[in-house]
Structure formats: structure tokens, C-alpha cells
Task: structure prediction
Amino acid sequence: MTASYEVRGQVGLITLANPPVNGLGLSTRESVYANLRLAEMDEHIQAIVIVGAGKSFSGGADIKEFGTARAMQQPNLLGVIDAIEKSSKPVIAALNGLAMGGGLELALGCHYRVAVLGALVAMPEVKLGLIPGAGGTQRLPRAIGVDAALEMIVSGEARKSELLFELGGQKLFDQIFNSPSLEDFVRSACEFATSISQVRPLPMLRNNLSNSTNQGLLGKTELTKIFESYRENLTKTSKHLPAPFECVTAVEKTVTTSFDEGMIYERKVFLELMQTPECKSLRHLFVAQRNCTKIDDVTPETPLRQVRTVAVIGAGTMGCGISLNFLNANIPTLLIDNSAEVLDRAKAGILKNYESQVSKGKLKEADLHKRMNCLQTSLDFGDLKTVDLILEAVFEEMRVKEAVFKKIDEFAKPGAILATNTSTLDINTIASFTQRPQDVVGLHFFSPANIMKLLEVVRTDKTAIDVLASVMALAKTIQKTAVVARVCDGFIGNRMLEQYVRQAFLLVEEGCSPAQVDQAIERFGFAMGPFRMYDLAGNDIGWAIRKRRYIEQPQLKYSKIGDLICEHGRMGQKTNAGWYDYLPGNRKAIPSPVVDSLIEEFRKQRGVPVRHIPEEEICGRLIYSLVNEGAHILQEGIAARASDIDIVYVTGYGFPAHTGGPMNYANQLGLDLIVKKMQEFAKNPLDDAAFWRPAPLIHQLIESGKLLQ
Ligand code: NAD
Result:
């Protein structure tokens, strides 16, 4: 039984007890249903309270049941909610904490709702490519009005209970209790239940039409305006996703049709969306996000090294951004550089960042001081002696890293974790500069490090398992999405990116303009095309990598067009000139006549016959180059799972979430089709046929009828 029952005076108390978040899987639904019947049959019971055990009321449907027969098995969630609504005795949902999706829908089916102060409520289905499927789109507007309901259902974001208590006369909750403990809250909820136990008729949201229109304050014109403005915004922000649009239409039904018809519509759309590739992809990412923290040889018993203090060495772009992460979590942070001037600038920059957040109302003044008090700066490596984790972010040169790691090794206490933020250098080599390679790990943050969620955790051949477990725990503390990679050039993300950019350069050489390539891949759904991205990151970074590559692998075919742009000093936004032109202080990419003529001249010199390249080919060449390198990475064990690669690309590189990431996209498209396309691309005389040789893993998977996983 995953819901318990007890009698408290005249109240029947049902407690959802399905850890960790009281998900509404079949067994919980059966238990609630059975206990409801028990309370109904007991003539001493005057009211029924439903509460959650632990910290949550209910996290909603059990995602493992999604799309399976179990989800539909009776009593399904709709059936349970229907039984609650039809109960002859008042049923009170007592939200002791988080109520999400189906959990909130269950509460909406109750006759009354009370909540503890600060309980979070959300309808997050849209994030999985769905609309709420158990009455949420029909009951929530009838509680808080279409405008507030749309805001919650379309965004999927959580709101605090108190914000939904009184919304211009409408409310989601009948009472909010500031209870110090769960027991105290349950007592208050039972007292409330007793106080209303004789009130008839029982209030039901299904009958509460006037609240949808804010008690009639919203006339037909206002309502039309609200729905249309949502649709208009969505065409800009969510054009690849059907679910947000369907949320709007379903909510609209609350003011255009009856409750029962609205419910039928909601169900139909919910089931249709469940079968869309977008929904399957978003669900894939949801599971992938959970799986990427699982590491085969890390178990719950793996000991953790405490990380109470941190030092960051190198107060440049990355060092400052990385420090902000630790300061945001109130972790005392020591920032070290070899220049006092750089340290002063870094401290001022960090303060400015917090001041700007305060001025926008995103941060309290007191928290600014708390965070700044956690920051110390120093020129002296001797100050590292007591620090738990030391993270190096100095220049990307092995000589510099060697000097710094030797110094760290001299001063760090035994057991300190030694991390490097290198993007391209061999961390096995970096670890060998110390007497304790087992303590060394890569923590590859992405720029801007205080904003980007992705963190590649790079385990070397010798990284100790407790170091790995500890940095994964730290990543959680600083709210990063951590994905583990093994050592190779570029790790997961940048190694794949190199192939993608190689194709982008070749496409320009063969006939595309940078804007044409960017627009094609942006229409596919990327946040930013390769040329806008390179201009943002700085073209010199890729240039440095290519120089190294030409020496190491002279046989590889590269378009030198990227070098040409750099040779003309066009490093990107920072020089107001890159693949595009920029006005000072403005990030808008303006197609550049200078670049156009450089490209034209380059093609002439190389004798390249210019051709029109269709959009399908542009996207295909860019995406399949990612897929093929991803397959190599998987085969070599650099990434543990294909879905880890998807998380890296969606979280760190703007790959469209509605495709589920490059590997999921390849699976959905069919690996055999991708091989066929790659064979076509290999015939291009300007390209390198070897580049398009499918990774052996892809052939193996096709032969055995399996997918990238
Ligand atoms: P940066 O040039 O902005 O900063 C480097 C800092 O290190 C400078 O402030 C410099 O004074 C300091 N420094 C150099 N030698 C030192 C020494 N011996 N002792 C103490 N301080 C020293 O560089 P960045 O862009 O912040 O990159 C730092 C590291 O992060 C590199 O390894 C880079 O590959 C990596 N990285 C950069 C990015 C990015 O987008 N910039 C992204 C991910 C990783």
C-alpha cells in the first residue's frame, strides 16, 4: 500500500506514502481509491483529508508508467479524481509541500484545498511535450482565472502556494497554514475539515465557471486578446513544439464550451501529444538528465570528501564566472592570480554582477553582502593550505598548467581535490605534474560559467572514485548538470563541435554565406548557428586548436577559410568584426561585405566551383557530423551513454530540445538512413571521404537492429 489511512476524530486521513515524491503510480492510485471508499462507508467520518508523507504532497504521475498500459489501468488518475469529486463527504487536499502535475490535478478535484506556506505547485507537463491530462487545463482556470492559469500551464514553472491564495478574489487555496511541522499542518488541515464538514452543496471547480473569466471581469474581447497574445508569443519562442499551443487551446475551452466537453478535448489532445516525436524526445531528455548522474562504479556507499572551501586559480573570464557559482552557494572562495590588478578587476566585476542583480530585484542586498563576504583574493599560493577543492583556470598552455599544478601540489593539504578547467589539454598529463594524480579531475565549465548549466566532469585514468563522487555532489550543490567524460581531445562537447565546425567552414567554401548556414541550422532549432557562436566565443580559440591539429594530423582536410578570417584580425564580437560585423556594444550580427569579398577571393584562388547548397544538405552535413563523432565517442567509452551526449549538446550547445539531442535524433531518424546520407556526402570531391566513414558502432548497431544508447 502506498497510501495509508487513519481516523482522526471525525476525519478520515489518507496519507500518500510513495517515496521519494508520492508519485501517483498504479499502487498509489489503488490505495487512495480504496481508502476513499473506506472513509465513505464509515458513518462516523464527516470529512476526508488527503496529505502527503514526507516533504511533498505529490510529484504527479509516475513517469515510468508514461505511455504504458499501467498508466491507463483502473483506477487511472481521472477515475480517482472523479471518485473524489463525487464523494458524498467533503474531501480536502492538504498540500504539505510540492504538488506537481497529476498531484495538483488531484488536489483540484478535491472540494477544498489548504496548503502549507511556501508549498510549490506546478503544471509542468508542457516541459515533457504534453498538456495536463487529468483535468488540469479545465479546473485550474476555474480556480484562478484563465490568465493566471495560462501563465502556469504554458510555462510549466512552479509557483509558491501563497501567491495563488488570493488573485483578485480568486484563489487556489481556502487556507494557508504557516505550520512548523507536518504533524502541526495535518492537525490544522483536520480542524479546517471539521469546520466545513456540514457545508452543502459541496463546492466543485467544475461548476465554477465565473472564476475563469475573473468573475466576469474579462469580456469576450479581453479573453480573445489574452489567447491571441499567448499564441503570438509562442510562434516566436516555441515554434517547434506543439504542446504549448495546445495548452492555450485547451484552456480556451473553459470559456467556449462545457466542462465535460473541455475534459474530452483535453484527454484527446493529451493522448495525441504522447505519440509525437517532440514529446518522446522531451521525455527522453527528462530520463537522460536523471541518468547522467549515475556512474557505474560510484555507489551510495562511496565516501565523499567534504568540500567546504574552494580556491580558483586564474581570475580571468572563466575564473570569475566559476567563482560566482561557488559564491552563489555561499561556499567560501579564494580567488588567486599572479596579477594584483587582475584580482582587483575580478573582485569589482563580481560585485558589479551582484549589484546589477540587486537593482533588478533578483537578489536581496543582504545576500549580496553574504556572498561578497565569502570571497577572498590572494597572490600567494601559500593560502591554499586549508582549501578543500582547488580549481585551476589559467592560460590554456601546458607549460603554464605544469608550473601551476606543481605549485598547487606543494601547498595543497593531503586529500584536497585538484581540478582543472582546461578545454583541450590532456588531463592525464596535467595530473602527472603532481605527486597525487588520484586527486586530479577535470571540471570543464562553459562560458559564461555563472549562466551555463553544463559541467563536463572529466575523469582521468587515475581519478579516485571518491573524488569523482564528491565533485558530482558539488555540481548538484551549485546547480550544474554534470556529465562524466573520459580524457580525450575536446572531451565530449568540443570534440564533436570540431567536426561540426569543419563542415560549416566547408559549406562556406563551397557556396554558402555564413548567414545562410546559421539561418538553416537555426530554423532546424539550434539556439545559434556556428558562425554567430564562433563570433561570440572568439574565433581565436578555434584557430589555436586548428594550428595544433594541422601539425598533429597533416593528412586531415580542413577549409582554411576560418584561418583567413582570423588572419584579418576578425576575432568576433570582441573586435566588433568576425564572420559578421558588429556595432560597438551591440551583439546583433550584421552580414559583412568585407567577409563576402574575402570568401569570394578565397574561392577564386582555390578554383572552387560555387554551387547552391540546399538547406537539407546544410543541416544534414552539420548534424550527421555530430552524430558520427558522437558514435565514436560512445564506442571509445569517452561517454558512458548516448543520452549523456544528448544532455551535453542540449544543455551546453543549444541543440534543439524537441529533437532530444543528436543521438536521440539519429535513433528517431534511423541509423541506416544516416549512413546512406553520409555515403552521399562522401562523394563530394571537395570534402574528405574519410570524414564521412560511419563509426564502426553505427554499422554494428544497424546489423543487430539496435539503437545508440
Ligand atoms: P583568461 O586569459 O581570461 O584568464 C586566465 C587568467 O589566469 C588570467 O587572469 C591570468 O592572469 C591568470 N594566470 C595566468 N598564469 C597564472 C599563474 N601562473 N598563476 C596565477 N594566475 C595565472 O582565460 P580564460 O578564458 O578564463 O580561460 C582559462 C581556462 O579555462 C583555460 O584553460 C581555458 O581553456 C578554459 N576554458 C575557457 C573557456 C572560455 O570560453 N573562455 C571555456 C571553458 C574553459
